[in-house]
């Protein structure tokens, strides 16, 4: 059974710092991996989608990498801002077909202090 | 298109009552998912549809839960005889599968259920 772990559970950084959020998964057979942001009491906002054949994706100040063989992904946030404060969730689609629903980690709660 | 829409956003009910949530996906998306999320946890899969066909149901989906997507557009999730343990955020998501597996998932704002 696929399990997703996110470390750390919470992180507090001063504004302007670059930071890395970690995600690991137990089974390297995945179809894709997706990073989401969730503000308190709200739904999830998709940040980046990485297909299993890809190594990384970039969007603005965000860069996500994928090392499928080691079961790891990282989300790099450059020049953090207070508006980046949220919970960041990693999710994988297990298997090779793209027909298995996403399995989520518990998230990393990020606070960026002005 | 304004994205995935869920209604109601909040529902407070007494134990034993029935509740129904509605989800309107992004119009061109053929897949629709329901997830449940409790405080401090990641979303847990409940069920999903490809067009009007319900393709998979989680063991979390007890007999008191039923979901439909009658015309392959909007979906409803009904919980009968609610229990306090049903209190959670119910999230709907949609995606487009071109026949090669699901693409990027887009979520709605969720429906928060509180059972007293």
Number of strands of chain A: 11
| Helix-strand makeup class of chain A | mainly beta
Q: Structural class given helices, strands, pairing of chain B?
A: mainly beta
Name the poorly predicted regions of chain B.
none
Q: What is the 3D form of chain B?
A: globular
Which terms would index this structure?
heterodimer; A: 114 residues; mainly beta; six-stranded mixed sheet; five-stranded antiparallel sheet; B: 116 residues; four-stranded antiparallel sheet; 48% strand; globular
Question: Describe it for me?
Answer:
The complex is a heterodimer of chains A (114) and B (116). Chain A is mostly beta strands and 114 residues long. Chain A is built from no helices and 11 strands. In chain A, the strands form 2 sheets. In chain A, strands 2, 4, 5, 9, 10 and 11 form a 6-stranded mixed sheet that branches. In chain A, strands 1-3-8-7-6 form a 5-stranded antiparallel sheet, with no helix packed on it. In chain A, a hairpin with a 2-residue loop joins β6 and β7. The radius of gyration of chain A is 14 Å and the shape is globular. Chain B is globular, with a radius of gyration of 14 Å. The N and C termini of chain B lie far apart (36 Å).
Architecture blueprint of SSEs:
The complex is a heterodimer of chains A (114) and B (116).
Chain A: E1 4-7, E2 10-14, E3 19-25, E4 30-38, E5 44-51, E6 56-59, E7 62-67, E8 72-77, E9 86-94, E10 103-104, E11 108-113
Parallel strand pairs in A: 2-11
Antiparallel strand pairs in A: 1-3, 3-8, 4-5, 4-9, 6-7, 7-8, 9-10, 9-11
Chain B: E1 5-7, E2 10-13, E3 19-24, E4 31-37, E5 44-50, E6 53-57, E7 65-68, E8 75-79, E9 88-95, E10 106-107, E11 111-115
Parallel strand pairs in B: 2-11
Antiparallel strand pairs in B: 1-3, 3-8, 4-5, 4-9, 5-6, 7-8, 9-10, 9-11
In short:
By secondary structure, chain A is mainly β. Chain A is built from no helices and eleven strands.
């Amino acid at each position: 059974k696929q399990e997703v772990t996110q470390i750390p559970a919470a992180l507090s950084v001063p504004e302007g710092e670059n930071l890395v959020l970690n995600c690991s998964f137990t089974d390297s057979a995945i179809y894709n991996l997706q990073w989401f942001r969730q503000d308190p009491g709200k739904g999830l906002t998709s940040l980046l989608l990485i297909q299993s054949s890809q190594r990384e994706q970039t969007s603005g100040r965000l860069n996500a990498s994928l090392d499928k063989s080691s079961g790891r992904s990282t989300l790099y946030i450059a020049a953090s801002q207070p508006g980046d404060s949220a919970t960041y969730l990693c999710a994988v689609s297990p298997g090779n077909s793209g027909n298995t629903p996403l399995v989520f980690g518990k998230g990393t709660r990020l606070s960026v202090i002005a | 298109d304004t994205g995935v829409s869920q209604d109601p956003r909040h529902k407070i009910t007494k134990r034993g009552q029935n509740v129904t949530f509605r989800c309107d996906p992004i119009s061109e998306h053929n897949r629709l998912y329901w997830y449940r999320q409790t405080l401090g946890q990641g979303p847990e899969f409940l069920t999903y549809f490809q067009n009007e066909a319900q393709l998979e149901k989680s063991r979390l989906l007890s007999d008191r839960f039923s979901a439909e997507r009658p015309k392959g557009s909007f979906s409803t999730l009904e919980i009968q005889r609610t229990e306090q343990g049903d209190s959670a955020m119910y999230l709907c998501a949609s995606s487009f599968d071109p026949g090669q597996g699901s693409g990027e998932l887009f979520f709605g704002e969720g429906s928060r259920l509180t059972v007293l």
